[in-house]
Amino acid sequence: MREIKDVLIVGAGAVGSAVAGIIDRGLPGSVRLLAGPERAARLKAEGLVLNGERRDFSLATPLAAPRAGQETSDLILVAVKHHQLEQAIADMAGHVGGQSLVLSLMNGIDSEDSLAAAFGRERVPWAMILGIDAVREGNETRYSSAGRIHFGDERNHPDAMSARISRIAAFFDRCGLLYTVPEDMIRSMWFKFMINVGVNQASAVLGAPYGGFQRPGPARELMTAAMLEVVALSASLGTALVPADIELWNETLSTLRPEGKTSMLQDIEAGRKTELEVFGGKVVELGRRLGIPVPVNETLLLVLRGLEDGARLAGSVMRPLSVAPLAPA
Description:
By secondary structure, the protein is α/β, with parallel strands linked by helices. It is built from eleven helices and twelve strands. The protein has helices at 14-26, 37-46, 85-92, 111-119, 163-175, 185-206, 218-237, 244-253, 263-270, 280-290, 295-314, and strands at 7-10, 31-34, 48-50, 53-55, 58-60, 75-78, 101-104, 126-132, 135-137, 140-142, 146-152, 179-180. A hairpin with a 2-residue loop joins strand 9 and strand 10. Helix 6 (185-206) runs antiparallel to helix 7 (218-237), helix 6 crosses helix 11 and helix 10 (280-290) crosses helix 11 (295-314).
């Protein structure tokens, strides 16, 4: 398989823009951003501001099918929200072909299935990004930790990775992206799912940044209770999570900027649609199917739906609940 030389970023929000900046710093000119006409005009006029520095990237036009003579992308990184994925698949379809590989940096545990259904399982390894603390406001993204991409086949041997995984790893080595290829990728996906279900939802309903969860207290207790329900589902489904995994997350959590915010809290504060369907919604769906009680996630899901409905009816920005004691120490 040929060496990866170019990357298409689909979804240049907080995660996508931060990753684009790191790749382009290591391999200048290797990144393109997928952008429709209005978005492209803004990017040409304003660029992206990453940690205070304006950065300009090449742009790619959404295409439903490849054009004659057009080269497809070697690697496509998808970093859109769950409810944007269907449109993203349609927009990127014309850039997938030949030896293209597709990695999802999205939240949840279902995006790989959607991408594989569209483009073939052979093009879509499993992937996630963990430990990134990027915050996006307007065209500016700030982050102190760019996190680490975890990717691979369902099972990976450190001394015998598949050709497609070795190809991506070699590219990440060249551009300077931190990564891990876990032996059990599905367990790693569920570990990220557990984290998102806990800290994203709790932060969104409490209006708390990471600092509110970095020490014992009611915020961390709420986060932990939501995570324990994911552990219970994992035990039933055989994806191997255990309660001790929550402590592993707390170790990573302690390294994030206290003032940093989860993606769901950023969505709430900006009045955007949240990803409640792939967090509490997925937990509730699985709980009902497996006959496992998930009352914490049922409650969080109701609160988040209430916040979204209230904002829609009022025509104003969604406001999280305010809990004064959760300011960072």
